Amino acid sequence: MTWDTHHSASEKLAIEAEGARRAGNHQRAEELYRQAGAQEAQAFTALPNDKQRTRGVTAVSAVALSYKGREYATAERLAYECLGQGQLPFFAERQLRDLVQMIWSARAAETAGIRFAPGDVLISVKGGEIIYGGAPLGLITQKIESIQAALFRTVEMLLHRPLRKRGGPDADVQSMFRPWLFQAPAGSYQFAVRVEESRQRELWERLDKPKVADVTGTFFRVLRAAASDPLRELPAVVPDEQYRDAFLNLSRNLAPSPGRKSFERLEVHDASDPYEPVASFAVETRQLLNAALRKSKPADISGEKPLTLQGILRALHLDKDWLEIATTDPPDHVHIDKAGEVLDDVIGPMVNRRVVVTAVRRGRKYFYRDIELDE
After folding, report:
1. What is the chain's mean pLDDT, rounded?
2. Does residue 330 have a cis peptide bond before it, meaning omega lies within 30 degrees of 0?
3. What angle do CA 369, 371, 372 make, to 5 degrees?
4. Structural element, H or E, at residue 373
5. Per-residue pLDDT tens for 96-146?
6. What are the DSSP calls for 185-252, one per residue?
């Protein structure tokens, strides 16, 4: 049989698997993914060596499908076989190594009795001060906090809960959707986040709660829409204006600032589905997000011209409606009022980091309009 025959059969099985997964039939979905992976593996063997790109795409697809079917030993063996044969394009070798790392983590987790929901959030930070396999700790810690905040906000949105303005997620959300951090193969700098499946998943879903497996899919759609077209695509994914504003602010925290050299780009994609679009956050993405945020705010009818203040965020008390930054030019501590609208998980990672605050000045007092990271 030819590559086309096996590949077409694999595509059909993968579509059926996705339908079963969305219907909540996880066991059936995994079996279909395993069958799809087996067909794609046969498609790979049917290809001649000179079809390098097609071989690369097919190899990654075969391993990813077996991985989705939780057939980890088969997926790992197939990845090694494909890599060992050589004559694969660079993108395929890199994606296969990413998948091998995820397979190792999944096998170790299942040995410990832990299962993870489909969807492996792979975050890559590139350029600037980032070196191969290394990055400033403070920078990566801030990005991890923003990713976790966006995941929890996704869960709360799917639960149709009112927007949380203070404190962390409720206990039920934290127990049902517990994110884990994994090392990933060295690129520029990469790390992976996965969501643990609770042993009470079936009870949760019988109570008409969002399926655990749907959380990461929605999370990816939110970030891709925010990164590509926040004004037109994001409202279709996040209809609620308050949640949309929260995601715009959290997404802006992922993008670099103009003129800074700490990093140049952050990318988020699903390592278990390498051909899904990547959410890419660069300087131009921040500019798009700023434009969307300005449009979401009510028009300022006071006629006052906003000014920008740059410095280190040193203190805040949102319940009392203020924050304070330490500026260097000139050296000063600037107290800014009316800051209570900022969300905890948006401003939390900014403490003791460089920020840009937009404010208006009335006499000797400053009044808050916006805040963003300056890195």
Report:
1. 86
2. yes
3. 150
4. strand 365-373
5. 888 888 888 888 877 777 777 777 788 989 999 998 888 898 889 999 999
6. --SSEEEEEEEEEPTTHHHHHHTTPPPHHHHHHHHHHHHHHHHH-TTTTHHHH---HHHHHHHHHHHH
